[in-house]
Amino acid sequence: MAVFSRGFGGRARESAPDLPPGQFLTEDFPVLSAGPTPEIYTAEWSFSIRTETGAQHTWDWEQFRALPSELVSTDIHCVTRWSKLGTSWRGVSLDTLFEEVESSYDYVMAHSYGGYTTNLPLEDLLDGKAWIAYEFDGEDLDPEHGGPARLLVPHLYFWKSAKWVRGLVMMKDDEPGFWEQNGYHTYGDPWQEQRYW
Ligand SMILES: Nc1nc2c(c(=O)[nH]1)N[C@H]1C(S)=C(S)[C@@H](COP(=O)(O)O)O[C@H]1N2
Ligand SMILES: [Mo]
């Protein structure tokens, strides 16, 4: 069998069982943004979850940072074929944030400062699968990587991990976000190679 290596100085899949099909390892941390990095001051930052009743649960930075946080060590997989293994983050579990939220809807649209959106099933945000992350490698999250805080949903392609996230809106039906309207798969499971539709 041919041993191949391509892009990002990566190693081929054979040497890394943690690598989903078609992905290549990278040691650095590429920045992928559809627009400019927004300037967000934590004094003006807030995160909210809005439900079908119009109820809005909002946390300012102080309230958010007072919530229990978790250290998360995880692999991340970008649809442009780079993967990074064993990344380390700190964030607040979506389980913690949803403790206060009552909704019968099954889907979520994540909204970011700057206008980016991405859609997810609610169940992919719960049960220890997703965080609002504010540290990477023990440091405040860089603005380029979504600081002060971003969504982290590592079991799906990384476009689902909305940088500069400012809120979630509950949806009755699945509706496409920014990349999903532009050809990316509605769900985006890297192990199924759900890249595009
Ligand atoms: N707000 C916002 N979030 C975003 C994006 C974006 O353009 N804007 N790009 C997505 C894509 S396609 C990827 S691969 C990751 C990249 O995150 P990184 O720049 O920290 O590597 O962020 C995702 N979240
Ligand atoms: Mo991406």
From TrEMBL:
Pfam families: Oxidored_molyb
Lineage top rank: taxon: Bacteria
Annotated spans, Disordered: 1-22
Gene3D superfamilies: Oxidoreductase, molybdopterin-binding domain
Oxidoreductase molybdopterin-binding domain residues: 35-179
InterPro entries per record: OxRdtase_Mopterin-bd_dom, OxRdtase_Mopterin-bd_sf
Protein name (Swiss-Prot/TrEMBL): Sulfite oxidase-like oxidoreductase
